[in-house]
Amino acid sequence: MSDLFGAPTPLVGAPMAGGATTPALVRAVTAGGGFGFLAAGYRTAEAVAADLADLAATGTPCGVNLFVPGPHEIDEPTFRRYAREIAAEGEPYGLDLAAAAPVHDDDHWADKIDLLVRQPVPVVSFTFGLPDPAAVTALRRAGTRVLVTVTSADEARAALDLGADGLVAQGTEAGGHSGTHSPRRPAPPVSTRPLVRDVVAATGLPVVATGGVAGPDDVRDLLAAGATAVAVGTLLLRTDESGASRTHRDALADPARTGTVLTRAFTGRPARGLRNTFIDRYEASAPLGYPELHHLTRGMRAAAAAAGHPDRLHLWAGTGYRNATTGPATTVINRLTKTL
């Protein structure tokens, strides 16, 4: 049983923002003996509250993941240059990307912190950096354990100094956005297993390992490396309870999709996904600039998903994507834990 989560097994359903994680998926992970997280990124406090109420109605505990707001990383001329460069990609959907204005927001940060202080959950995790100390103090006073996502031992030490109760060690194999605290100066990429060992040695805190999990052997190896729990995300994307689009699900099973790459072309922040035409065309010239580039391409990506156009869609996936299967998410959790 995990000291962090109180679940029967050391499996965690990773929070996948953008719609992939649903209350139904959290319930299924819990039914399999794991612990599920809601993804609060890109959502209002009201939408998060509705999901929490949905889970509370069935007595399902959960964690919540928040994106830490970052500084402006892109100037307007650079933004407009890239918007013009990718403009043709929006034309099939009636979108004038070249006319878009840069949008920098904090993803409803204060409202969501207030919500989670008023309606505490067992665990809140943070991605993209260190939360402000006041938020950590308020959440801990409410009885919530605080986790910080880290990609290096140095980031782990900073989280320890902040007073984090635990860490999420995200290896380079992980799908979706990198949790690096400094995308302009990221640490050298580290695989999940050695990262776990480094982070445990540097801090002594409980560590959730995430990245590259393809089967039960990976779970055992990461626990043996010192992890308290192991988070899985990509392996849940094709399950019955996933909110991932049909276009995304089908791409994960497409034999023509032969690998994953790190890209900033879609959102202006490094993220791992299946290689596609958009990445091939624009990665070399794509600037850093999150969330401005996320907002720039968001409408195009939604339209591409609806139209079944995978080459204009962010197909987030970790390196274990070939093992993502259809069927109930509970079956995936059971398969990963049956030999523990």
From TrEMBL:
Cofactor(s) named in the record:
FMN
Q: Which GO terms describe its biological process?
A: 'de novo' pyrimidine nucleobase biosynthetic process; response to toxic substance
Q: Report keywords, A-Z.
A: Detoxification, Flavoprotein, FMN, Monooxygenase, Oxidoreductase
Q: Where is this region: Disordered?
A: 170-191
Q: Which domain of life is it from?
A: Bacteria
**Catalytic reaction list:** 3 propionate 3-nitronate + 3 O2 + H2O = 3 3-oxopropanoate + 2 nitrate + nitrite + H2O2 + 3 H(+)
Query: Does Oxidoreductase count among this protein's keywords?
Result: yes
The protein's GO terms of the molecular function aspect are: nitronate monooxygenase activity; oxidoreductase activity, acting on the CH-CH group of donors
Family as reported in the entry's similarity comment = Belongs to the nitronate monooxygenase family. NMO class I subfamily.
Q: What is this protein called?
A: Propionate 3-nitronate monooxygenase
Q: Which source organism does the UniProt entry give?
A: Micromonospora krabiensis
